[in-house]
Amino acid sequence: MNSKDTEGPLRFNEDLTPSIQEIETGKIFTSKFKTELRVALLVLAVIITGGCNRVASQIMATSMNHYSFFIGIFNSLAYVIFYFTILLVRYLMGYVPKSDFAYVWKHKYDKGIPIWKSISPWKYFIIMGLMDGLGNILGLIAQPFLTGPVVSLLSQTIVPFSVICAIIVLKTRYSFWQVWAVSLLLCGVMFTLVPSFSPKNNIAGEATWSLLVAFSTLPNAISFTYKELLFRERPGLDIFIVNSHGSLFQLLFQPIFLPITLLFPVLGGGAANLLDFVQKGFQCFAGQTPLHNAKTCEWNPYPYLVYMVFNLAFNILLLLVTKEASALLSFMAIKAILPISVIMFLYNWPIIGSSPISLYDIIGLVVIIVALFVYRFFTVQKNDYKLECMSLNCPILEGKKNPQSFY
Q: What is the distance between the alpha carbons of residues 318 and 313, in angstroms, rounded to a whole number?
């Protein structure tokens, strides 16, 4: 038989059954595809719920108007219930050891030891509760008097404040490029602030409210810094231990922030005294418009309920992304929320309507987004290549091989 008769593209006597190796390769590919698809859907869900959370937050603050202080109380209570429920479930499932609970509530009483040192780690939760409560209250006070895009952009000041707090408390040192990125971000925030200082807007006190939002992130940055310090002192401490107890202390300290409203007469809402203000605040939350109130409260409490649904969903999804992928991907998802939320505010929403975006807002948005990603990029570079403080080196641009995986 001619050799040509036995050759060809198809032989009917060949075994077409795939090998074990081919089957395993196919399974691995399918599994990897499913994992990547799940992560992609989670990231998409984080961005969508994050954008909705920003819009719902603005609607909620506007609906409460003069009485937005009370949102802080309800938020703290909701977070205590939410985080302690998850913590209890994790404890019953064996994920949280008893030693973590014992660590939180331990104290060493000794006459020779200062009280501040003997109540460790209570002191960290006291700082977290005070700072988170103060930061949230200041932000909520100013939020009804500004547009959604401006609030979203000004909230990015938490990055430079976090850098300053880390330098002071954690003794963290940054490279030249990280400092440059933070400076660029501040330039973006300044662009956003320009319209607030125009004579027309300044009559309405927009500059004051804008600065209040910008500086309201400082207490939150202090809280984040002490959370990191707590994790450094107790590696492996369950994150829900920290979140639940931080929320508990925030709830306990919430009433002491009520007098802050006296610093802003516009927040009085026609109240004769502090007790009257509290009464009218709860009345507004229940959907009854108090006398002499400039805006109606008839929508309440539904805006708050919608906000809490999106807020809790966003936090849960963000934790899932961090677990399924990485902190880097979580960071990128969070920062993608900023432009999405700015675009979403262009829609004519109930209560707040549509929020126009000025040229300064657009320039500030672009600069802030670029600065955030540059900062994250050089943070990874610094950690992977162990760069020294204020180093001008950029190894990846110099063609050096990364000793660790970038992702």
A: 8
